Amino acid sequence: MSKPSAIVIGAGIVGLATARALAIRGYQVTVFERNERAVGASIRNFGMVWPIGQPTGPLFERAMLSRSIWKETCEKAGIWHDEVGSLHLAYHDDELEVITQYAATNHTLRDCALLTPEQTLIKSPGVNPKGLKGALWSGTEMIVEAREAIAAVAQHLSEQHGVVFHWNTAISEVQQSKVKSGKKQYDADHIFICSGVEFETLYPELFASFNITKCKLQMLRLAAQPTDWRIGPALCGSLSMVHYPGFQSAPSLPALRKRYEEEYAEYLKWGIHVMAAQNHTGEITIGDSHEYGLVHDPFDKDFINQMILKYLQTFTNFKDTSVIQTWNGIYAKMTNGQTELVVDAEPGVTIINGLGGNGMTLSFGLCEQIIAARF
Length: 375
Known about the structure:
Elements: E1 5-9, H1 13-23, E2 28-32, E3 48-49, H2 58-77, E4 81-82, E5 86-90, H3 93-106, E6 112-115, H4 117-123, E7 134-138, E8 142-144, H5 146-161, E9 164-166, E10 173-175, E11 178-181, E12 184-187, E13 190-193, H6 199-202, H7 204-209, E14 212-222, E15 234-236, H8 253-263, H9 265-269, E16 275-278, E17 284-287, E18 291-293, H10 302-315, E19 323-334, E20 341-346, E21 349-353, H11 359-374
Parallel strand pairs: 1-2, 1-13, 2-9, 5-15, 13-21
Antiparallel strand pairs: 3-8, 4-8, 5-7, 6-7, 10-11, 11-12, 14-17, 14-18, 14-19, 15-16, 16-17, 20-21
Helix pairs in contact: 1-5, 1-11, 2-5, 2-11
């Protein structure tokens, strides 16, 4: 009896997560990627697997499922990963109040705790001690080097699960159980479109009917720190508290947001909140910003990068702040509050999209849940 078959379009994190979930259930999976390797949003991020950004409940549980799959995959494939956790740093009383409330609400539900300034500086030598009032520690965050990890996951799926990859192969048409790339045609029992904002080219009318937009983010990378110096946990300025929905459980968050709207209006206008994560070579990725719209200026705005660097100095104390790279990425995001878009475009064709900036954190968990429920 032949194996059931599936085609996955897109070799970014959503496509790889879908391919994995199908392959471990006995499907013969074929992945089509229009480029010679994944070059989109999946490699243009912090490499953070970030459960703390998710509200307690189903999304946090999905993030933790995703984290466990990431860890298992990294260990089996020999992919570098660092279970460093994270610190959200407070330098004002209202910021301290938010993280105090967060810890009080969540400490029995997840690995988190309120730290004193002294405890914080023991956790990370990269924290700016001046004016530090405390920090929220979370032990659930993990770092990978996305630029290498995404390609390594694809190789692992090919070698260990028999997933077939067709690189440099753009799919130009989808019809139920068939996909076409130019004159070539491929068949499968199920088709999954996981190509980020590019699904707009396959189903333009469908794309236009959804509450979906595109988000451009700007990021920077700092030089490898001298003498193998490490920052330890991923570090977050307090602007991140008003960005991630996980902090909405704190009753005093609206008051903090109100102050930021007055003092950091320009930062909020450009969706800037600042975080830092260190890779295995010692380089530190920092960012980011958020600009929304269906069409984006392809050029980076230097003033945004300068704002990020300026805010970074308020909560970090790095050995070397030389910028070695800047770039931008674009991902699809729902505008109606949905955390993802999962829809059957036609019989046998499923679109998985719109995870916003949570692709690295949620994709493995989401796709495992979708495929487990269907098959």
